[in-house]
Design a protein that fits this description.
The structure holds two protein chains of two kinds. By secondary structure, chain A is mainly alpha-helical. Chain A is 69% helix and 2% strand. Chain A has one domain. Chain A has helices at residues 2-40, 56-66, 77-94, 121-142, 146-177, 182-188, 194-197, 199-212, 224-227, 237-262, 273-294, 300-328, and strands at 104-106, 109-111. In chain A, a hairpin with a 2-residue loop joins strand 1 and strand 2. In chain A, helix 3 packs antiparallel against helix 4 and helix 10 crosses helix 11 (273-294). The longest helix of chain A has 39 residues, at 2-40. Chain A is globular and about 60 Å long. Chain B has helices at 3-24, 28-48, 52-77, 92-111, 126-136, 138-159, 163-170. Chain B folds into two domains: 1-80 and 88-122, Up-down Bundle (Four Helix Bundle (Hemerythrin (Met), subunit A)), CATH 1.20.120; 124-171. Chain B is 76% helix and 0% strand. Chain B is built from seven helices and no strands. Classes of the chains: A mainly alpha, B mainly alpha. The interface between A and B is medium-sized, with 28 and 26 residues.
Chain lengths: 329, 171
């Protein structure tokens, strides 16, 4: 009984720490993105609030919270209020299966450094990712506005298309590690990270992950110049903030997943596990920001063509090739 | 009552309630949302019964893929809310027949030896599950994939524009 209560307490602490870090980091990822985008475009970026504009995220958060929360007259109230929460919650939940360090021994008990190591961890990530579509689609529909609806439909179409490539690109990783558990996948990369064995999977996964998080060059659901802000057009205040935070949490989670699947997770010399995971995560996020600053937005037909005619066939060939090589050696 | 059976009854109530709501809603988007919650509840039930693999597949395929397509179509078509009766009288008879058959089957199963059997709790490991299904159910898997392939080819054929229309657009 005591063990059960202690275990529950440890679990709660882990959840609190992970949520706290994810949300805090989401705010500072926005700051990092604005600062980097500024530099890419030969300007300074935010520099008024605090040194280097470090207090900017706090100022932004205060602004969001104090703004009026408007629900449009003709909107479907319940779904309208619920949609941003779905986006943020599914993004946060995905992190539950990401391991962030080697097992810790605390008072003679082994404490695994992961919120929950279920034997279908990878599928759990996909389940959450596929539920995240509802936030976008329902948010767009419930607003009862043409721009929002178009944004929602585009978002749903895009996320369904790229989910397939995302899933198929990970099949070779599962084949090599022999498990769906993220802890096992990190363990399988003790000698050599999978990016060196599966570079094709790595590239497909990164492209699909960028499309899943709906960022430039894949930001058609919120294309500013044609749709206002797409599915989030009618949202204001902290509900808009939720969509925003959801996007940045998503970037972090995808960064962490890239690290776990291809860059050997928390493994690394000298520094402790969580620090390595953080470094890898931020490195992936930085590459995403860099790509955002470099590329223009895709056209809709290009987006669909890349997803269905390039990424999916290539990942299927990659699976067959991996299987053939595993049979031979 | 253990905590597990409490969770079981809670989930069962949730599933029945949301399913009932799903089939009585006039607004199709609401119906889809309730059905998604119902599928999610079933997934949690699978998880509770020690089948995390099935639970994950239930969410990914039913809640995450099929229902998103439903929602997509409903959003695209902007279907007017229908004014007709929700359960037309002509549907009552087949529904009643199915109910009787189902209840009969349930009674037969429960009155047999299996009705009193207590099953051991087992957690299905994905690898063991796949081994079993590809060893014992390979024919069913192949038939299912063949049907899906046929559907795929059919969809491609219907979706394809006639060659003449393509040419006209190119000019």
């Amino acid at each position: 009984m005591i063990d059960g209560i202690l275990g529950f307490a440890v679990l709660l602490v882990k959840i609190a720490v992970v949520l706290g870090i994810l949300l805090l980091l989401a705010a500072y990822l926005v700051w990092m993105e604005r600062k980097l985008l500024g530099r890419f475009q030969v300007r300074l970026g935010p520099n008024r609030a605090g040194i280097f504009g470090l207090l900017q995220p706090i100022a932004d958060a205060l602004k969001m919270v104090t703004k009026e929360d408007i629900v449009p007259d003709q909107a479907d109230r319940l779904l309208f209020l619920l949609a941003p929460a779905v986006v943020t919650a599914t993004a946060l939940l995905m992190f539950a299966v990401v391991p962030f360090g080697p097992d810790l021994t605390l008072m003679g008990k082994i404490v695994p450094m992961v919120v929950s190591d279920i034997n279908v961890g990878l599928l759990f990530v996909f389940a959450m990712s596929s539920l995240g579509v509802y936030g976008v689609a329902l948010g767009g529909w419930a607003s009862n506005s043409k721009y929002s609806l178009l944004g929602g439909i585009r978002g749903a179409a895009q996320m369904i298309s790229y989910e397939l490539a995302l899933g198929l690109s990970l099949v070779p990783v599962v084949m090599l590690s022999g498990s769906f558990s993220l802890v096992e996948i990190v363990r399988a990369q003790a000698r050599i990270p999978f990016v060196l064995i599966q570079p094709v999977s790595f590239i497909i996964f990164i492209i699909a992950a960028m499309a899943e998080s709906k960022r430039i060059p894949f930001d058609l659901p919120e294309a500013e110049n044609e749709l206002g802000a797409g599915y989030s057009t009618e949202y204001s205040g902290m509900r808009f903030g939720m969509f925003f935070i959801g996007e940045y949490v998503h970037i972090q989670v995808l960064g962490a997943l890239v690290a776990v699947f291809f860059l050997s997770g928390w493994r690394g010399p000298v520094l402790p596990g969580p620090v390595w995971l953080l470094i890898k995560m931020l490195a992936v996020a930085m590459v995403m920001i860099w790509i955002r600053a470099t590329l223009p937005r895709f056209r809709y037909d290009q987006l669909m063509e890349i997803g269905w005619k390039v990424l999916i066939p290539v990942s299927l060939i990659n699976i067959v090739a991996t299987g053939a090589l595993m049979m031979l050696f | 009552m253990t905590i597990y059976s409490a969770i079981f009854y809670l989930l069962a109530a949730l599933i029945i309630a949301t399913t009932a709501l799903a089939i009585t809603r006039r607004n199709l988007v609401h119906a889809v949302v309730y059905l998604v919650i119902s599928f999610f509840g079933s997934a949690l039930l699978f998880f509770l019964l020690g089948a995390p693999f099935l639970a994950a597949l239930e969410v990914i395929i039913y809640a995450g893929a099929i229902m998103v397509l439903f929602l997509f179509i409903v959003m695209m078509l902007r279907i007017e809310e229908s004014k007709r009766r929700i359960f037309p009288l002509s549907q009552w008879i087949p529904a009643a027949v199915l109910c009787v058959i189902y209840l009969g089957m349930l009674a037969v199963i429960l009155s047999g030896i299996e009705g009193d059997m207590r099953l051991e709790t087992a957690v299905a490991v994905p690898a063991a599950f796949s081994m079993w299904i590809f060893r014992h159910g390979w024919l069913a898997v192949e038939i299912a994939s063949l049907i899906l392939l046929v559907a795929l080819i059919g969809a491609l054929h219907i979706g394809r524009r006639p060659a003449a229309a393509d040419k006209k657009e190119a000019q």
